[in-house]
Amino acid sequence: MSKGIGGHQRAYRGATDDWLTPPEIIEALGPFDLDPCVPFCMPWRTASLSFSEFEDGLYQPWCGRVWLNPPYGPLAAEWLKKLSRDGNGIAVIFARTETAMFFEHVWRAADAMLFLEGRLHFYHPSGKRAAHNGGAPSVLIAYGQDNAARLAKSGLRGAYIDLTMQRSAA
Fold this sequence. Notes:
The chain is α/β, with parallel strands linked by helices and 170 residues long. Helices cover 24% and strands 17% of the residues. It has one domain.
């Protein structure tokens, strides 16, 4: 069997590599103007405007408030780099806090984080919740003070960290 998003085996062969954010997270943090990396088949809207692989959202101009659930692979750092430079959005990634990507584009660039309690169950493009959790803890990363405030007031369970306070204390 092939592996899923966090290294868990998939329930069936030929399963998707597209892992959708649970809709309750989008509802708690939205609305968003842009989601630059949605799968071809999207059962719910995450933003007013979205780009699929056809439009290659990594290389499109971004505008407004961005929701980012980047592809979990070698280009994830490029997606976070673009969001950190854009400075207006929220991303969800695995909480791999020791990686070069995390140090460069989160610890040194983000305004706030919310380490989510428990492990997320992502969704398939069919809209069906994955049978197994993502296999690793997830973190929501806010770029921009408005997004940090929305993250703090979202009601999502987890540990909130204001990185601007952490950096100014150092």
